[in-house]
Amino acid sequence: MSKIVGLIGLGIMGGAIAPNLIERGWTVIGYDVDAARTRALAAAGVTIAAGIADVVKAAELVMTSLPSPAAAFAVAEEISRSGESPRIVMELSTLAIADKLRFREILATAGHIALDCPLSGTGAQAATRDLIVYASGDSAAIAKCTALFADFSKQSADLGVYGNGSRMKFVANHLVAIHNVATAEAMVLAQRAGLDLRQVVELVGPGAGGSRMFQMRAPMMVSGVYEPATMRISTWKKDMSIIGAFAEELNCPTPMFALTQPVYTEAMEMGLGDKDTAAVFEVLDKRAPAK
């Protein structure tokens, strides 16, 4: 199979993945409704298509990284109407499993193969190929995508039945939600204790109390700079609602996860929705005024 891939959705994640693929010899045929994003990615070497049908015409492998179920369904409909021979379409977004199934159904009507392939990692991690691909669906199709995955991630796995990729992503993001707020709480505690926050980042991160979220987001909390966002709080709130509904459907208690939700809600109310999720530090900092 040729090293040509279509990428529909050039936002935080898609826009970070594309340059890595180009660097490793892939021709990336990209499309996004945001003209500013297409101009930026064209400058990075992405071949910008006029529309979704042109992406599908050029590439047998297509990835979609989209902000909502409505966008995913609209893209699937356009791919199905393209008239092209069967394509493998990897859906990278975090969506409810019912929405992923609907995405697959739309594509199946035209003979295309959908794979559920959400990613573990942020946009900043995507820029350094520090992602994990949770692939699920048709195993033969996943095998055809292994080389592609290897060129923009550090690890990928075939998780079996379609939808298992999303199930794994929900478990991972459940922990991210907790670790992110826990990091903010610890950093506010350190600040109130009069510690040098740069030393906290340097010494706590590698220790037993550290986490990937601490290592990534504590430095942002020290600087108070939450842009450019690697994951916007507004997007994260959407993801959290999906995880909450998933856990409720399974009748599985998630008390720690539930405790983080008001913190993200308060961040939204403070006008921080477009900031990185590290901005939850501002919520807890406001709750604990310095003496």
Write the layout of secondary structure elements.
Blueprint: E1 4-8, H1 12-23, E2 27-31, H2 35-43, E3 47-48, H3 52-58, E4 61-64, H4 69-81, E5 88-91, H5 97-108, E6 113-116, E7 119-120, H6 123-127, E8 132-135, H7 139-150, E9 155-158, H8 164-192, H9 197-204, H10 212-223, H11 233-249, H12 255-269, H13 280-287
Protein model, in words:
The protein has two domains: 4-162, 3-Layer(aba) Sandwich (Rossmann fold), CATH 3.40.50; 166-287, N-(1-d-carboxylethyl)-l-norvaline Dehydrogenase, domain 2, CATH 1.10.1040.10. The protein has 13 helices and nine strands. It has helices at 12-23, 35-43, 52-58, 69-81, 97-108, 123-127, 139-150, 164-192, 197-204, 212-223, 233-249, 255-269, 280-287, and strands at residues 4-8, 27-31, 47-48, 61-64, 88-91, 113-116, 119-120, 132-135, 155-158. α4 links the parallel β4 and β5 (88-91). α8 (164-192) crosses α10 (212-223) and α11 (233-249) packs antiparallel against α12 (255-269). The longest helix has 29 residues, at 164-192. The protein is globular and about 65 Å long.
